[in-house]
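Side project, low priority. Logging it here so it doesn't get lost.
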Amino acid sequence: MSLLQQFDAGGARLTMLPERALLWPEHAMLVVADVHFGKAAAFRAGGIPVPHGTTRANLDLLDILIERHAARHIVFLGDFLHARAARAEATLAALADWRARHTALRLTLVRGNHDRHAGDPPAGLGIEAVDEPWRLGPLAFCHHPQTVHGAFAIVGHLHPVYRLAAGGDALRLPCFVIDGNWAMLPAFGAFTGGYRIEPQPGQRIFLAAEDRILQLDN
């Protein structure tokens, strides 16, 4: 059994990755949603003690995916920075250092609701910030869940998770949700939380479970 799962999106063949990202091999493109860089720093700035290191964990995971899949382009589906308070010196320094190691990588941010408050990323990061929907070929990249006329929408925003229960045990796993004309990605960020979803008629749920993608039987 393949550890990954592919699906057709209006003629584009996309691969779901267990690292909560999407791969479009034809364009050597990675798509991630809701990274929320600096969220932990913003919480600490508000006096809430939360762990350090989430920005580094997110960047390290991006490094792994870039190398593994020879990615040349990353599309961020909104909420790149969590808030204005996320522009902590350590967070921006980590992002600048990461960018300096990937100067040839194309980066596109489709603005989300948090980006409106946090502002666009610093110009030195070389990230093209665009409004939704941002279209490429048969796909429309969006932050908010929506349908886009004449395109298959790739969306984020809700941080979908699915609750598995067996006996007295329960587990929440991030998941991809695929409908007839859109697909929703789980949150990529390591400190983002999740919104529990239940599959609606016609929808397919794919669980991101450690090293594999598992389709939910519904």
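Brief comment: Residues 95 and 125 are 8 Å apart (CA to CA).
Revisit when time allows.
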